[in-house]
Please model this.
Amino acid sequence: MLSPKVMRDSHGQVAFNGTNGSSRQRLAREQATVVRALHEGKTILPGFDPDQLRVTAEALTAKRLRSITKAWPAFAAAMSPQIAAQFRQYAMTHPPQAAGPDEDGGHFAVWLSQRHSLPMRVRLEFERWKVSKDGLPRVLLGLDGCWLAVIFRWGGDVRAFRLPRW
Amino acid sequence: MTQTSLGLGIGWRPELALDIARRSDLGFVEIIAENIGSDSIPEPLLELKNRGVQIIPHGISLSLGGAEPIAPDRVRHLAELATRLDSPLVSEHIAFVRAGGIEAGHLLPLPRTRAVIDVVVENVRAVRNLLPVPMALENVAALFAWPNGEMDEAKFLDDILGQTGAGLLLDVANLWANARNLGGDAVELLRRLPLDRLAYVHVAGGEERDGTYYDTHAANVPEGVLRLLSELCARADPPGVMLERDDRFPGGAELNRELDAIADAVAKGHARFSRAGCI
Model:
C-alpha cells in the first residue's frame, strides 16, 4: 500500500490507521452508500437532493451503456432498440465490472440470456463473445428459423458460419 | 510547482489521430493513461513526441478522493508513461471513482469538509512519492452536491493544492457546468482559485437536456465556456489550454474550428490581461 496509514488487516480487509483513520472510515461508509444508491437507482438519501441523485444515477447508467456499445458495437446493434430499457433493469442490480466495458457487456448478455429468448443475431453476438473469451467452439441450433451456426476461433479472429446464410 | 509552457493542446484519441497530426500549432496533447499501454505506445503519439509536442498522461482511475487505498499498480503505470514519453507532468482528479468495492463508472464529487481534505492530501502525498514528475489535479463536474459542506469549491481546491504542492488543472467547462446545475457564480469562483498554481486548462462541450447540462465531451464548446475561458485569461496566463473531445467526433475542419475558437478566447482574455497592466 502507498501509505503506512492505509493498510489491509490479516483478513485482507481495508484497515485505516493514523490521524485520518476515523475520517477515512466515515468517508468510506458515506461514499459506499452513495455509489450503491446511484447504481440501484435509490435517490432518497438523507440530506441529498433527490432530483440531483436521480439525474446522476441516470447519467451513470447512460454512460455505462454508451461504453458497452462502443466496446461491443455488434452486440449493441443487434439488440437495439430494446437495449436501453433492458440495460436499466440490469444496471440496478449489477454494478459495473472493474475489468471494463467489454466484460460489463458480456455479463449483461449473460443476464439477458437467462431471462429472454434472445433474437438470433443477439444470440450469435453473445456466442461470439464467449468464444473470444474461452476459445471453445460453439454450435448453435435455431429451431424457429431452422438454422445452424458454427462459431470458432481461427488464428486471432472469431468466425461464424450459418446455414442457411442470411 | 514550476509551470511548464505548453501552448495549445488537445486530448489525443485514436479517432482524432490523423487530424491531430495535421495540426501544426499544437504544443501538447493529453492521453488517458488507462487507455495506453506503456509498452505499446501508438506510433502517432511517438511521432508527435519526436516533433516536439509534449505529452501529458492523465489518469482517471486513481480515486484520489476515495477512502479506499490507492492501488500502487495504477500509480506505477502513470509513472512509466511519464518516463517513456518524457512528460513534464501528469494529472488526475479531485474525485472518487470507487467505494465499498464497487466501481462508480464516473468521477464523483467529494464532500467539501476539512476531514475530507485531510484524506485527499494524504492520498496525493503518497502518490506523489511514486511519480517522477509533478502532478496537477483537476476539478470535476458534479450533478449532485453532498450535504453539510463546510466551504465552496474554490476554498476546497485552494486548501488541497496548498497542502500538497500539486498544480491546478482547471477545467473551465466543469466550473461552468457546476454553476449552471448546482448554483453559484463561476466568475466569482475563478477569482478565488489558486491561479498561481495553474498547470493547464481543459475546455470541452456538452449538452443540455431537461434543464441539466451534461459535460459529455461529445459536442462543440458552448459560448459560455469560451467566455469563462477568456475571463480566466484576463486574470492569468495559463501555461496550456486544451480541447477535450471524447465522442461524436467531428471532421477535421470542425475540429480545427473548435481549436481556433479556444485560441481566440485565450487571445481575447490576454488582450484584457495586458491592457490591465498585468504583463
Remarks:
- The first helix of chain B runs from residue 17 to 22.
- Chain B touches chain A at residues 66-70, 72, 75, 96, 98-106, 108, 111, 115-116, 118-119, 122-123, 125-127, 129-130, 143-148, 181-182, 212, 214, 247 (CB under 8 Å).
- Chain B has nine helices and twelve strands.
- The mean pLDDT of chain B is 95.
